[in-house]
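Regression test case RT-17, inverse folding.

Input:
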C-alpha cells in the first residue's frame, strides 16, 4: 500500500511539474514584440525622383539580393517603429499601404492592405529577433513597392 501511495504522489508531482513547465513556456512565448516596418520602392533607376527617399540599409539590401527580384535599386520611402502586445494586433499605416501585425507568441501574422483598405497579402510565420520578412507587389512603370518587417525585440 505504501508503494502505491508513493507512486501516486510521484505521478501527481510529475503532472504538476509538467503543468507548471507548460504554463511557464506559454508565458515566455506570449510577450510584447517590437518591430520596424519599412516601405521600399524597387526600381532600375540609379536615383529616386524623390529626394526624401533614402538608400536601404546594407542588411536589407543583402536580403533583397538573395530574393528572385528583378530590380537593381531599392529606396526607403518610410520607416516606423511600433510594438505589438502579446496576443494583440496593430495596424500601422504607411504612405502607400497599411500593415497589420498580430503577435501570436511564437509566430506573427502579417496582413498587407492597399490604399483602399483591401487586404492584398496575409502570411503567418515565425520571425525571430533580428530577422526580416519582405512582402510586396508590382507598381506602375516596372517598379515595385515592398514592405520590410524587422523584429527588433
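Golden output:
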Amino acid at each position: 500500500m505504501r508503494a502505491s501511495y508513493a507512486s501516486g504522489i510521484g505521478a501527481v508531482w510529475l503532472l504538476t511539474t509538467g503543468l507548471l513547465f507548460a504554463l511557464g513556456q506559454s508565458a515566455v512565448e506570449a510577450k510584447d514584440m517590437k518591430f520596424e516596418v519599412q516601405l521600399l520602392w524597387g526600381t532600375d533607376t540609379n536615383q529616386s525622383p524623390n529626394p526624401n527617399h533614402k538608400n536601404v540599409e546594407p542588411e536589407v539590401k543583402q536580403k533583397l539580393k538573395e530574393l528572385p527580384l528583378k530590380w537593381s535599386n531599392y529606396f526607403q520611402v518610410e520607416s516606423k517603429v511600433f510594438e505589438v502586445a502579446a496576443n494583440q494586433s496593430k495596424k500601422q499605416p504607411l504612405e502607400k499601404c497599411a500593415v497589420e501585425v498580430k503577435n501570436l507568441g511564437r509566430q506573427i501574422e502579417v496582413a498587407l492592405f492597399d490604399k483602399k483598405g483591401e487586404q492584398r497579402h496575409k502570411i503567418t510565420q515565425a520571425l525571430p529577433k533580428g530577422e526580416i520578412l519582405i512582402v510586396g507587389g508590382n507598381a506602375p512603370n516596372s517598379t515595385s513597392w515592398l514592405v520590410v518587417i524587422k523584429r527588433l525585440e
